[in-house]
Amino acid sequence: MKEMIFNLRNDLKEKLPPQRYEHSLSVSFICTALAMRYHADLEKSELAGLLHDCAKHYGDGNIIKKCEKQKIPLSLDELKAPVVLHAKYGAWLAEHKYGIKDTEVINAIRWHTTGRPNMSLLEKIVFTADYIEPRRDKATDLPVVRSVAFIDLDECIYFILKGTLEYLERKGYFVDSMSVQAYEYYKKIHEVKKGEL
């Protein structure tokens, strides 16, 4: 696995724009840090973090065409918010181009943009690492979210989803229904922990 990760780094360095490559490296390192904290598989976490944006450089229009060519089904939500599609196509690339057969890793790549209810530990780690990696600087709540990430992963995901949905609604962007479902799921966990139910 270590040799595979090393080879993938070289491959991605050639294919991705420099900023996207640096982001991918940074996410993979945060994934391993979170994996250490939550006793997840370090190599799977690093691998999923490294490949999470392997399709991002294609652009929304191209990704739709590529998904159609590979007969990857697209929902109406995904067509209305194509920015999330790099995760779906990236999961396909991970399996068919990079030879990743581990379903956990593929799913972590697949759900890193929208999240989903009841994510696996690895899915939570990649979803969170993508948001909190050191080169991110736009979200106003980042310092709090970064500290919560290493205390309570479910609570962190609730804060990420809440902030993301508020931002999308404020900007008037379409919100993928899977993100709403994920938010409702983690909001219930948050409310139970806070004794609000």
Automatic annotation (TrEMBL):
Q: Which residues form the HD domain?
A: 20-135
Which chemical reaction does it catalyze? P(1),P(4)-bis(5'-adenosyl) tetraphosphate + H2O = 2 ADP + 2 H(+)
Query: Which chain regions cross the lipid bilayer?
Result: none
| Enzyme kind, highest EC tier | hydrolase
| PROSITE patterns per UniProt | HD
What's in the keyword line of the UniProt record? Hydrolase, Iron, Metal-binding, Nucleotide-binding
Q: Which GO terms describe its molecular function?
A: bis(5'-nucleosyl)-tetraphosphatase (symmetrical) activity; metal ion binding; nucleotide binding
Q: What domain of life?
A: Bacteria
Recorded E.C. number(s)?
A: 3.6.1.41
User: Is Nucleotide-binding among the key words of this record?
Assistant: yes
Pfam families attached to this UniProt entry: HD
InterPro entries assigned to the protein according to its UniProt record, in alphabetical order: Diverse_Catalytic_Enzymes, HD/PDEase_dom, HD_domain, HDIG_dom, YqeK
Q: What is this protein called?
A: bis(5'-nucleosyl)-tetraphosphatase (symmetrical)
Q: What organism does this protein naturally occur in?
A: Lacrimispora algidixylanolytica
